[in-house]
Design a protein that fits this description.
The chain has helices at residues 27-42, 59-64, 69-93, 115-123, 141-151, 185-191, 198-206, 221-226, and strands at 7-12, 46-51, 98-102, 111-112, 127-131, 156-161, 166-167, 179-180, 182-183, 211-215, 233-235. The protein is an alpha/beta fold.
């Protein structure tokens, strides 16, 4: 089966993993993600994944509550490891080989990340789940995703969210917001759209890494993006 992309970096939202629970990991949502990922791997696509940790702990909100920012961000990194282990377990239960890599040494929880190890796993048909952000405070998991997408030489960074693309304003707050089918990195910056943080957007722009923002919570959407169907928003 011919697909538009042969290797992708999939960025998943930690908040989306909550489902309707309001906190933690919703098993149905987790299994839905695992099924969708397994489906595209079966079609021949190599998949690396970065997951946020906002369903468990977010460093910035922790800092606002009085946590030291560096320690708060380190707590956020650990939250991404928990989510990564959960997704790895869900994939393994569905007989899809997967492996967790961590930005900082956390053996035996995961292997310490290196570009070469991750690419070897991808070439074996394993899903490479890369946890711990960049391993440094003051960087978001969006920046971690952009960095890993460039490092593993992905064709595209897929940003799976609760929203079906990029809009002129927050569609959950503004009913007049209109959706972009395509938008440039510069236009995102000039319009002040909060798609990703500026560091992540700049990193993708400098390395010519296209981004597709789409609704991951609708089963089947990931396969549609891989097949090149025009859902979501392309950032170029």
């Amino acid at each position: 089966m011919r697909t538009k992309y042969s290797r992708v970096l999939l960025k998943l939202s930690g908040e989306s993993l909550m489902g309707h629970q309001g906190y933690g990991i919703d098993k149905e949502r987790l299994n839905s993600y695992a099924e969708q990922i397994k489906e595209i791997v079966a079609s021949g696509v190599q998949v690396a994944i970065v997951i946020g940790g906002g369903n468990i702990f977010r460093g910035l909100s922790g800092a606002a509550k009085g946590f030291d920012r560096v320690m708060g961000d380190q707590m956020g990194m650990l939250a991404t490891v928990i989510n990564s282990l959960a997704l790895c377990s869900a994939l393994t239960a569905q007989n899809q080989a997967a492996r967790v890599y961590t930005a900082i040494n956390m053996f035996p929880i995961g292997e310490q990340y290196s570009k070469w190890k991750a690419i070897e796993a991808l070439n074996r048909g394993e899903v490479a789940i890369i946890a711990g952000g960049t391993g440094n405070p003051f960087f978001t998991t969006d920046t971690g995703s952009a960095l890993r997408a460039v490092e593993v030489e992905a064709d595209v960074m897929l940003k799976g969210t609760r929203v079906d693309g990029i809009y002129t304003a927050d569609p959950e707050k503004d009913p007049t917001a209109t959706k972009f089918s395509e938008i440039t990195y510069d236009e995102i910056y000039n319009r002040g759209l909060r798609v990703m943080d500026l560091t992540a957007t700049a990193l993708c722009k400098e390395n010519h890494m296209p981004i597709v923002v789409f609704d991951m919570d609708t089963p089947g959407n990931l396969a549609k993006v891989i097949d090149g169907e025009p859902i979501g928003t392309l950032v170029y």
